[in-house]
Amino acid sequence: MSEEGGRRNYNEMTDWTDDSNKGPLTAKSDGTNSVYSLFVQDEMILMNERLTLYLGGRLDYWEITDLMDWTTVGNAGANEYEDRDETYFSPKGSVKYRASNSTTLRVSLAKAFTAPRLHDILGGYSKDANSMRLSSPYLEPEKATCWEAGIDQTIFDKTLFRATYFENYLRDYKYTESWVEDGINYSTAMTGGKSRIRGFELGIRHQLTSFLSAYANMTYQDTEVTEDEQNPEIEGKHMTNVPREIYNFGLLLEDYAGFKGSITGRYASKAYANSSNLDTTSHVYGSYDAYFTMDAKVGYEIIEGLMVSFSVDSLPYTFKKLITI
User: Could you say which of 3.40.1080.10, 2.40.170.20, 2.60.34.10, 1.20.1070.10 is the CATH number of the domain covering 91-324?
Assistant: First the structure.
């Protein structure tokens, strides 16, 4: 994957599609961000198919090239940055043990690598005239070490319960730093320090009929910034953009006279947007409030291999718009 792009800031622009009405150029940036990955995995079945081992790994090569920015604001002027690259290997291993026909135990351990996005590196975009996203040319890739353990329990061949406990340990994790200066809301992406996420997942799926099933699950996440030399005052705070609770539920129509479909719902609790966790007020500009959405989809297989489908996202909002119109 490779992304190439840039940004341009002008003093005035009443119509962005018309070059003739643009004011003086005040800032610009360009760069190329590339990630190349190779993934391999092997499955081994042992002990009369009771024990299954998965061993794998992913090799990532990341590079950022031709990165520059220029601005007339202050004394920053033009800057050209050295090309950077990094190679990282992420191993993964997991074990599944079928203790009985209805009970399966599982455990896994893995490492992960996430390269920064060009969108965050270049910055420059703004939500309105009083906000500005600054560039972050020195963003580092995020790394994580993760493990989880869980159990799957089937009852009467129709109901499946799942329970999982997990822990994720991150370093150079990405977060957003925000502040206000001279009436302007500034923000920038940052990486650095360490954090951890602990939590659990609970889920249930029940086969109502031969073609209709229902499911529900929830995730609880307890996050903490454990170390940050650049910003030590945020140590002990919750991570940004990570809700503490997430709930999902839905009905799945698997195959009935050629029809397939689903109705799904999702709820996520309030998340912090500020690394110091100061944004505790809801329903105000800039807050990441709790939200609930519902989606629906239905499809019909006209002939084998050819299906038409219709879907609606955010049902309550869509119906509200229709009623308003």
Answer: 2.40.170.20
